[in-house]
Design brief:
The structure holds 2 protein chains of 2 kinds. By secondary structure, chain A is of the alpha/beta class. In chain A, 25% of the residues lie in helices and 15% in strands. Chain A is globular. The N and C termini of chain A lie far apart (93 Å). By secondary structure, chain B is of the alpha+beta class. Helix content of chain B is 27%, strand content 16%. Classes of the chains: A alpha/beta, B alpha+beta. At the A-B interface, strand 3, helix 3, strand 11, helix 30 and strand 32 of A face helix 1, strand 3, strand 4, helix 4 and helix 5 of B.
């Protein structure tokens, strides 16, 4: 019977009411889930933040039809946040461009350009600029480099892409190679690296579930890393206390047990007071502290603390604004300074210490040599514990109230929860992100938390540790395989001019006899072999001389100044949008307007690609398109589903993504771009006998390519990163690396990722088939460990501190360390082992030294070297602050880096005249619905509709004080620029009571810009370039500003408004510049 | 219910959502995952100033909607630290309730809306004639007509995914498992246990919404754990199927018709006589 008629179905079937199956149309009957009809499912990883959520990419007829979470992942368990959930639209349906574009000098608009022609022109520009600006030496010192070219970008790219960028540009003599890691988490590497030995988070996401108390501070965990936050909720469900310390009541606070509002930028005072509380009340974990930290180590007699010098430490030179760290060291121990040898000749030439050196030991800790004196009673007045106690004595609850605006009652609650939940049977974990890193003393924020966690005995133990939440899919990877000026792969330092003429000098300065750096010759020589192959031989120093030399800071912010000065002429932007995302956005654009050529590779036409025709300075009349001589190339990039490669997530875990489809049009991977750029340049230079071209021509650059686009093989690059022996066999770990030139390895800490010729990062054993460590999901450095320093999860005698917190322990019968995780210790070294005084390398560490990358094996409560602005975290006010430092006469971090420039004016602070012109504290942040500078969210309709416009958050009290109307407009003004934003008046932005005054804070999301669907002024128009001296990270989490009702002026009236504020506040060249 | 046509709705095969708002982080992943899966267009880019809610309400182009409620009230033992006052920020993801007694289904004249084998209520866009009767019929204001094609649209509880043995896109993506999908019986038990926990933790205002088969819509296939009165989230406090009175209306109509016919007959008879 023909059942096409519903009525017939109704009468003949079981559905007599005709409201069920009988009503189904033919189309409904045929309706199938497209996940079920896909031709294939490809394993991938989300391209947004660094949680590293696994994705399944469904492909039908060579098109991606669906992207969703992979339930097999032990990290994400199949879940995705709104951004991850929108990645189908991001990759297939957003404002993505597929046509290469070219803007000739002075032109009013783009013109299409053939991709091959564009590549050829870019290669010509690089060759020409390089030749024009080549510098064999500077001031008589060999540099062998070009300062005319810079690149920015890498955190959103694959490890393999970062590797080719660093390799090719270094061979070309380009030193200004930078990426978002500088801007986001460079201070993490310093803070964690000097404290524990490695610059990465000490734990992994899933371990949060074992925590008894989670303190989230400097992070808006639920909003910025929503899928990772599920593990906080797991901990809460198991009874953990969740504390959120933050200027704003956010979506994280909404789920916390306790929200503590704090003045932005005052966290060191807050943490310092908890440290003091722990010390004064003897609440520290005595056995852990005595054995596993440097608490007992005795300092030199000539050390003077900030306590003695009103906020300064001994050794400060106000002339060069730097510390001589000699007096900070241990008594009786010769320090091989982690921040570079103090070379008077070097200082005479460069006027500064080798910058960026403190990040160098991000993987391996700062080197030390000699033997320190200890006082096991911890009573010696110069032992670290007593120095610590004195240093933090003035950090009282009263002071917390005055400095941070935190009521004593709330502060006491935090102290109680934290100390009650730390000890042999309990652990507490700290979680932070850029709310701590982006300050002019950002490294010290992280140091403060490190000290506290060491005192409480929470490092290396389940549910403990410090979780650094990074915000780009591979920003950890772009630090490990650094597109950073000061590093070579695996945190080997870039050599500096003069002091590192020969490899021997270099190794003498940086590779000590104790600790892991003793193996550095093997790491470095293997790297040089990977880059220059047969050309690298013992008699030519393995081509060490071909590495271009540094002569100062060449960070991305120094590059902007070099662009303005006309020294840097060519710029590659590889997935980064500094016109919105970097501090002082206007200065970024003015720098680009002074270039000869600019290459932008991105998914969309971001602000950094179009500023020359529609940027804010065109509107104000400060720039005229016809006058801008910058030649601009826009090359569309392939997205994460269109290329294979590995991301390293925030917990050092490498996860391989398989390519799902071919990119359309001119879209190409950055692997393709760098490889073919190198190939074309090498072809053009072939036959050159100019010695400056030799490093490029002798570079190993023969990667296999495949497909119509001649895409290079990412696996081949990963194999080189992993390394091989003299017979070409893949290495299985860095202990196989040799200093005799018989091994090649592109990044020693990643050695083992291609063990047995198998891509270990591609492992996907489902979480349901593994224990909670999930060791067979991806591959983590170092040596596939998840919890670092896990020797500390056992007592000195090797037994677990408690059954509840068992992780790694000594199996006395078998004579090995064993446990759930890979032990972070020599497997056969018994707890009773004590080194001979002459022992070298790892053998110099005892059986109770869990921090094996530190030369003394101890966690550093006190940093005798490695942190250039002080051995102990000290509260300084932000560069621009409406508050006078209540703790010391010293207002700001004396060693911070400031840049005097007409476009980068600072403001008066505290009690200085004019400070009241900028009376409010501004903090910037992310929203769940958007991503960094917006290139991957503001062009995506599903994300844009959720947060369509720039807004500011203010308290009802501030709204009343300044006449701001909810939903209306406000203008926010600093000495750099002024922006407008819609007003959200909310109780979530509490006003603070501190030191007898009410202080208002203004919240600004930093995602917005003029392009795309969700628009608005960029918060970074307001920020200044003022940097942490250790890491060169910018201070954008705490500044001061004024706010007024209404929209900002248009045209020339805008800069006039900014100038009128400057005049009122008396802002000039010297404002805020004093040490 | 109007005609009791769904009396044979097989509860044992019925699936649904339990949305536990006490663990919602307001990330809106559900809104996006829903749109991606169902190809629902964006719903306009408008800054509303309603806390972090810029999609405003459920509609033809928004099938999951997260409400944000800022209140000067305490939340259990939470210490909000916002001055000296109480404060809490509630978030809740709303969705079609897939009612036991679904008025949209009652009023649909074309058979576009139908009750699936999973006990859910789904619109068939190819059958819908755009009459719009279902729009005012819904006591929750869930269903809407899409302006572009004039067809009614709402959550299908990912009917196609259910057919493939997969959970709905919103439940799958939810980072904190605030949206839980499963057999309705099991979800109801789970919700009762969760309610006890939340209340024991001090949030005595917590309650379940839509779980009760005795309510005005016979209970819903998508129900909620709320932390305050339903009105606070924009939900009706006592939803009633809008076709509730149809049977008595029809009875009255029948009586009136009979009476009319009788009257006419009497008149005719009298005239003849």
């Amino acid at each position: 019977m023909d059942l096409r008629w519903p009525l017939l179905r109704q009468l003949t079937g079981g559905d007599r009411t005709g409201r069920g199956p009988a009503a189904k149309s033919a189309r409904t009957e045929a309706w199938r889930a497209r996940t079920a009809t896909a031709d294939r499912v490809v394993k991938s990883v989300c391209p947004y933040c660094a949680v590293g959520c696994a994705q399944k990419v469904y492909v039908r007829e060579e098109k991606v039809v669906q992207i969703e979470g992979d339930p097999d992942s032990p990290i994400s368990r199949g879940r995705l946040c709104p951004k991850g959930a929108a990645s189908l639209q991001l990759t297939t349906d957003s404002g993505r461009r597929h046509q290469a574009l070219y803007r000739p000098p002075g032109a009013a608009d783009w013109q299409p350009i053939d991709l091959a022609t564009a590549m050829d022109m870019i290669a010509d520009r690089i060759i020409e600029t390089r030749r024009e600006t080549w510098q064999w030496e500077q001031g008589g010192l060999r540099t062998a480099r070009t300062m005319g070219i810079a690149s920015l970008g890498g955190a959103t790219l694959d490890n393999e892409e970062n590797y080719l960028i660093k390799k090719l540009l270094t061979a070309l003599g380009v030193v200004q190679v930078e990426n978002q890691a500088r801007v986001c988490h460079s201070s993490t590497v310093v803070g964690l690296g000097t404290s524990f030995g490695r610059g990465g988070a000490t734990t992994f996401m899933q371990d949060l579930q074992h925590s008894d108390c989670v303190v989230i501070q400097g992070s808006n965990f639920a909003e910025a890393h929503p899928v990772g936050f599920q593990w906080v909720m797991e901990a809460k469900a198991r009874g953990a206390v969740i504390i959120h310390v933050d200027p704003r009541f956010t979506r994280t606070s909404a789920l916390a047990d306790l929200h503590v509002p704090i003045r932005a930028g005052s966290d060191v005072a807050f943490l310092g007071a908890i440290i003091s509380h722990v010390l004064e009340n003897e609440l520290y974990f005595h056995e852990y502290v005595l054995n596993y930290t440097n608490a007992a180590t005795i300092l030199r007699e000539d050390y003077r603390d900030a306590e003695d010098l009103d906020g300064l430490f001994s050794g400060f030179d106000p002339g060069c604004r730097e510390y001589d760290q000699e007096s900070w060291q241990y008594e009786g121990m010769t320090t091989v300074a982690a921040s570079g040898s103090r070379d008077t000749e070097y200082r005479r030439v460069a006027g500064t210490d080798p910058p960026g050196r403190t990040e160098v030991h991000g993987a391996t800790g700062a080197p030390l040599d000699g033997r320190a004196r200890r006082d096991e009673t911890l009573r010696h007045p110069r032992c670290v514990l007593q120095v610590l106690r004195r240093h933090y004595a003035r950090y009282t609850p009263e002071m917390v109230e005055r400095v941070c605006g935190v009521p004593r009652r709330l502060f006491a609650e935090v102290c109680r929860h934290l100390t009650e939940n730390s000890g042999p049977d309990k652990t507490a974990e700290f979680v932070y992100a850029v709310g701590w890193t982006q300050h002019s003393d950002g490294s010290q924020f992280i140091r403060a938390a490190s000290i506290l966690q060491l005192l409480l005995g929470n490092i290396g133990r389940p549910g403990g540790g410090i979780q650094a939440l990074r915000g780009h899919a591979s920003i950890q990877g772009s630090s490990d395989i650094p597109t950073l000026f000061n590093l070579l792969p695996g945190y080997i330092p870039m050599p500096h001019a003069h002091e590192h003429e020969r490899m021997r000098d270099f190794l003498l300065a940086d590779a000590p006899h104790k600790g892991f750096w003793a193996n550095m010759p093997a790491f470095l020589i293997s790297l040089l072999k990977a880059w220059w192959g047969e050309s690298a031989q013992p008699d030519n120093d393995y081509r060490f001389g071909w590495l271009p030399r540094l002569t100062g800071s060449h960070s991305t912010y120094d590059t902007v100044l070099a662009q303005l000065a006309g020294e840097c002429k060519g710029y590659l932007l590889l997935g980064e949008n500094p016109a919105v995302g970097s501090a002082n956005a206007r200065m970024q654009r003015l720098g680009m307007a002074n270039l000869d050529w600019l290459v932008v590779r991105d998914l969309n036409l971001i602000e950094s690609a179009t500023w020359w025709k529609d940027g804010p300075e065109i509107e104000t009349g400060e720039l005229r398109t016809a006058d801008i001589r910058t030649e601009v190339f826009f090359l569309p990039a392939a997205c994460h589903t269109e290329k294979s490669g590995s991301f390293t997530n925030t917990n050092r875990l490498l996860q391989w993504r398989h390519q799902a489809v071919e990119p359309a049009g001119d879209a190409r991977s950055d692997l393709w771009f760098m490889y073919h750029l190198g190939r074309i340049i090498r072809e053009k230079l072939a036959g050159s006998d100019d010695p400056m071209d030799r490093p490029v021509l002798d570079l190993t650059w023969d990667y296999p390519v495949h497909g119509e686009t001649a895409e290079p093989s990412g696996e081949a690059v990963l194999a080189e990163i992993n390394g091989w022996d003299a017979h070409g066999r893949p290495l299985s770990g860095y202990d196989e690396l040799k200093a005799d030139g018989s091994t090649a390895c592109g990044c020693w800490i990643y050695c083992g990722v291609y063990k047995d010729g198998v891509n270990q990062a591609a492992r996907r054993k489902p979480a349901s088939e593994q224990d909670w460590i999930a060791a067979e999901w991806g591959w983590a450095w170092p040596a596939n460990r998840r919890v670092l320093y896990n020797r500390a999860s056992a007592r000195p005698d090797g037994s677990p501190w408690s059954e509840r917190k068992r992780l790694v322990w000594w199996d006395a019968e078998a004579g090995v360390w064993t446990g759930h995780d890979v032990p972070d210790f020599e497997l056969g070294k018994s707890p009773g082992y004590r080194p001979h005084p002459d022992a070298q390398g790892e053998a110099a560490l005892s059986g109770i030294d869990p921090f094996i990358m530190q030369a003394d094996g101890k966690g550093w409560l006190y940093a005798p070297s490695g942190v250039v602005d002080g051995p102990l975290p000290t509260h300084y006010e932000p560069q621009d602050s409406p508050v006078a430092n209540p703790l010391y006469g010293q207002q700001r971090n004396p060693a911070r880096k400031v840049y005097e420039h007409a476009d980068n004016r600072y403001q008066p602070s505290g009690d200085e005249p004019g400070a009241s012109v900028y009376p409010y504290v501004v903090t910037t942040y992310r929203l769940t619905e958007h991503f960094t500078a917006g290139g991957m969210s503001r062009f995506t309709p599903y994300l844009s509709e959720l947060q369509p416009e720039m807004f500011c958050e203010v308290s009802p009290a501030l709204a009343a004080e300044r006449g701001l109307v909810h939903g209306d407009w406000a203008t926010i003004v600093t000495a750099r620029n002024a922006i407008e934003a819609r007003v959200l008046v909310t109780d979530r932005m509490p006003s603070l009571h501190l030191d007898g005054r009410v202080l208002h804070q203004i919240g600004l999301p930093f995602h917005f810009g003029p392009n795309g669907l969700a628009r608005g002024d960029a918060a970074n128009e307001l920020s200044a370039i003022s940097l942490d001296p250790n890491s060169h990270i910018q201070e954008v989490k705490a500044l001061s500003a004024d706010i007024r009702p209404g929209r900002r002026p248009r045209g020339p009236a805008l800069p006039e408004l900014v100038r009128s504020y400057q005049r009122r506040a008396g802002v000039g060249a010297g404002t805020g510049m004093e040490a | 219910m109007a005609f009791d046509l769904d009396e044979r709705l097989d509860e044992s095969r019925r699936v649904g959502f339990f949305t536990d708002t006490s663990i919602c982080i307001g990330c809106k992943a559900c809104e996006v995952a829903c749109k991606e899966w169902n190809h629902v267009p964006d719903d306009g880019l408008e800054f509303t100033g309603w806390s972090y809610d810029n999609t405003v309400k459920l509609s033809a182009d928004t099938w999951r909607h997260v409400a944000f409620v800022e209140q000067r009230k305490p939340l259990g033992h939470q210490e909000p630290g916002v001055g000296e006052m109480d404060f809490r920020w509630l978030m809740a993801s709303d969705v079609c309730k897939h009612c036991t007694h679904a008025a949209c289904l009652d009023v649909c004249p074309t058979g576009s809306l139908f009750r699936t084998e999973f006990g859910t209520v789904v619109v068939q866009p190819d059958v819908c004639n755009g009459c719009g009767y279902c729009v005012p019929a819904c006591p929750f204001g869930v269903i809407g007509k899409r302006e572009s094609d004039g067809v009614a649209a709402k959550c299908t509880l990912c009917y196609d995914r259910l057919g493939a043995g997969e959970e709905p896109a919103c439940a799958k993506t939810c980072p904190t498992d605030s949206i839980q999908f499963g057999d309705l019986d099991e979800l109801r038990e789970r919700a009762e246990r969760r309610l006890e926990q939340v209340r024991a933790a001090g949030t005595t205002s917590a309650r379940l919404y839509g779980h009760d088969p005795g309510d005005g819509v016979g209970g819903t296939g998508a129900f909620f754990l709320l932390l305050d009165e339903p009105e606070v989230y924009g939900l009706p406090p006592d939803p009633v199927v809008t076709t509730r009175d149809l049977p008595s209306m029809w009875r009255h109509v029948a009586v009136a018709a009979v009476a009319l016919l009788a009257g006419m007959a009497a008149t005719a008879w009298r005239r003849r006589g």
